[in-house]
Amino acid sequence: MIFDLNFILGHLNYWLFILLMMIGLYIVIARGNLIKKIVGLNIFQTSVFMFYISIGKVSGGTAPIFPIDMNINPATVYSNPLPHVLILTAIVVGIATTALGLALIVRIREAYGTIEDEDITLLEIQEQEIENQHL
Amino acid sequence: MEHFYLHLPILQVLIPLILAPICIVLGRPTAAWLIAFFASVASLVTALSLLHSVSDGSSLSYHIGGWPPPIGIEYVVDSANAFLLVLVSGISTVVLLYARDQIKFEISLENHTLFYTCYLLCLTGLLGVLITGDVFNVFVFLEISSLSTYVLVAQGAKKDKRALKAAFNYLIMGTIGATFFVIGVGFLYMATGSLNMLDIHERIIDLESSRTVRAAYAFIVIGMGLKLAMFPMHLWMPGAYTYAPSVVTTFLSATATKVSLFVLVRFTFSVFHLEFEFIQEIFKFLIMPLAIIAMFSMSLVAIFQKDIKRMLAYSSIAQIGYMLLGVSLLSEQGLTATFVNLFNHGITKATLFMSLGVLTLHSGGSFLSNLQGIGKRMPWISAPFLIGGLSLVGIPGTAGFISKWMLVQATLEAGIPFLAILIIMSSLLAIVYIWKVIEHIYFMDQATTISAEKVSFRILIPLWILAGSCIYWGFDTSFIVTASDLAASNLLSN
After folding, report:
1. Domain encompassing residue B330
2. Rounded to two decimals, what is the model's pTM?
3. Could you give the number of structural domains in chain B?
4. How confident is the model at residue B444 (pLDDT cuts 50, 70, 90)?
5. For the range B272-279, what are the long-range contacts, defined as Cβ-Cβ under 8 Å and sequence gap of 24 or more?
6. Does some domain include residue B23?
7. Nearest C-alpha of chain A: how many angstroms from B483?
8. Could you confirm whether domain A10-59+75-134 is CATH 3.40.50.720?
C-alpha cells in the first residue's frame, strides 16, 4: 500500500468514517452497560451519516439552494443535495431507534433492577434454574 | 374504476399505513381490531389483483408523485414480489382472525389498540419492502417494519420479562444489519449515481472490477444476513420468537425473515448481475457452506430444547438454511425451490406457532412437560400441530414435502447430488424433534396443569384454514409451483 500523503489527506473523511464505524461497533459488542450499547450504536450510525455527506460534495460546489430571486446562473456548480436528503431520513430512523432502545432500557431497569448486561444474564440464568427445577 | 386500478401499487402500502393511527384514534379494542382486519383484507385483495395482473410475466411500474424514474421513486410489481405480497397479506389476515381472542390473555387491555397500530405498521413496512423499486426506499420500509417488530416482541413482557431483553438484543442486531445495508447502498450510489434498481442494473454492467461495487455487495449481504437470521447472525431469533406473544411469533415467523431473504435475492438478481464473478464466489464459498451448517447445527440444537417455542425458532433458522441453499445454486430450479420453500414454510410455521399458542394458554406453559397428554383433551387444536409438524419434516401429502422435493430436484439438476443427501439427512433430524413433541402431546399421561376449556370457533377457523392449506397445497401444487416458476424466470431474465 502506498503511503501517499495526498491519498490519505484527500480521503480524510473516509478514514474518519471507518474509524468511527469501528469504534461504534466495538462499543456495541464490548460494553456491557445497555446505555453504552445504545451510545455505540449512535456513533456507528453517525459515521454512516458522515460517509453519505462526504459523497455529496462536488469540488468547487456551493450549497444546493437556488437564489431567492431565481436568477440561476447556469455556470454555478452545486453540491449534490440527494445524499443530504437520504441522511435526513436515516437520522430520523436513528432517533426512533434510540428512543425505542432507551424506552426498552427503562422497562428493563424496572423489571430487573439493573442495566448491566452480565447482571441481567445472571438473573435470567437464575430464573431458568428455578424454572427447570419446577419441570 | 379505471383510475382506482392504476393506483393499486401505492394502495398496497397506503391502506395499512393510513389505517394504523386510526386504530389509536378510535380508542376501543374491538373497533381497532375491525380496522386492522379490514386493512389486512384490503391488502390481501390488492395483492391478489396485483398477482393476477402480472401473472403473464409482465411487470407493473408505478411512479410516485408522477416523477419519472430514475429521478423519482418507482414501485415495481413483477411476478416475484406479487407472490410474496400475497403470502404476507394472507398470513396477516389469518393471524388477525386469531389475534382478537388470543391477545386478551397475553397483552394488557389498555395496550390492545396500540398493539393493532404497531401490527399494521409492521404490515406496511413488510409490504413496502417487497413492492419498492428504489434501493433506499427498501431501507426506509425495512426500518418501519423492524421498529414495529421490536415493539411487538417487547409486548411479551407481561407474561415473561425476558421479552424485554430479547427485544433489546433484536434491536441492536437489527439496527446494525440495517446500517450495514445503508453503507452498502451508499457505496452503490457512489459507484453508479442512481438509487433506482433497474437504473443501477444498467449502470453497473461495466463496474464488475470496481472495489466500491464489491464492497457494496458485501455490506448488503451481511446487512440482510443479520435481518434474515443467516447462520452466525441468528442470535437474536430464538429469544425474540420464544418470549414474544404467540400472535406476534406466528406473524413474524411466516413473514419477517422471508421478506429479508427476498431483498437479498432481489439485489443479487435484479440490481447486480449474476454473471459477476464475485457474486458467484460469495454464494459458492460463503453462503452455501453457512446454509449447510445452519441446516445441521440448528436442527441439532432444536432437538435438545425443552421449550417448544424455542425449538421451533431454531427449526426456523434451519429452514432458512434450506432457502439460502436453494438461492446459492444460482439456477432457475434453485430459485423456484426457494420460492416454494418460502411460501410453504410460511404457512407451516404459522400453523405450528398458532396451535402452540392456543395449547400454551390451556396448559400454563410451552414446555414439553406442560403439554403432556394434551392431545386427548384438545384434539382439534393438537391435530393442526401434528399436520404442521408433518409438513415441517416433509412427509408426502403435505406442503413441506413439495418444497423439500423441489429443493432436492434443484440440487440434482445442478449436478451436486451430495447436497441432496445433506438435505435428506437434515430432514431426518427434524423428525427427531417433531417426534419428541408429538410423543409428549399424544402418547404420554396428562400433566396436572392442563385446563382444557372450550375453544371458540374464532380460533378454530384460522387454525384450520392454515392446517388445511398445509395439506391442500401438498396435493394441488399448481398455484405455488407456477407462481414460483414465474418468479424465478422473471428474476433470472433480467
Report:
1. 275-494
2. 0.94
3. 1
4. confident
5. B272/B201, B272/B204, B272/B213, B272/B217, B273/B201, B273/B204, B273/B205, B273/B208, B274/B330, B274/B492, B276/B208, B277/B208, B278/B208, B278/B214, B278/B217, B279/B217
6. no
7. 35
8. no
